[in-house]
């Protein structure tokens, strides 16, 4: 009897491994088939969908595509929301409402809500769950529910080369300069100068770069070791796959 039990246990484990492998293979196929690219846009008809740009599957809420421009080689993670206008089916005029420059990265679960003009500069990277919006609720009338009051809208501009950490929030009217670092969880409003680091809620400048004096306050971490010239991407990938020596 114990021998039979072991046999059944072995068969059950084999079935679980087979089913797990089949599920993972099937999900990878679904992700590949459901991804949105310029060659395979699916049901989405963007104003512009640049070469090499990819929206991972499953996508988040996407509407107002006719007023959304995505540059070349952008990476849009899973469950990312991209909207132009307050609701689907509106005529928003002749000009784009939401524009992403070349090489923009939006991490998983991020939201970009553009009821009025939102521009994200080239090579700006956003971590997971970043929230960028041009609309804010108003609460002027104390006798009406906040959700029923007409919202306020102000354009948002994020300069090129910025980095927005996980969970950062960019509020209506924000204007971020070039190469700005936004700390994780920061809430940004107003104007942020070029080459600044902001943190907190509301965010404030905690470090900035001066052409003469450099970073103020000075950086506390050593500079990263540069990649030697002539090293190919294939060599870097092979190096990353090497296992550390065991003692």
From TrEMBL:
The keyword NADP does not apply. GO terms for cellular component: cytosol. This is Acyltransferase. It holds the Pfam family Hexapep. CDD domains: LbH_MAT_like (cd04647). Belongs to the transferase hexapeptide repeat family. Coiled coil: none annotated. InterPro entries: Hexapep, Hexapep_transf_CS, Hexapeptide_acetyltransf, Trimer_LpxA-like_sf. GO terms for molecular function: O-acyltransferase activity.
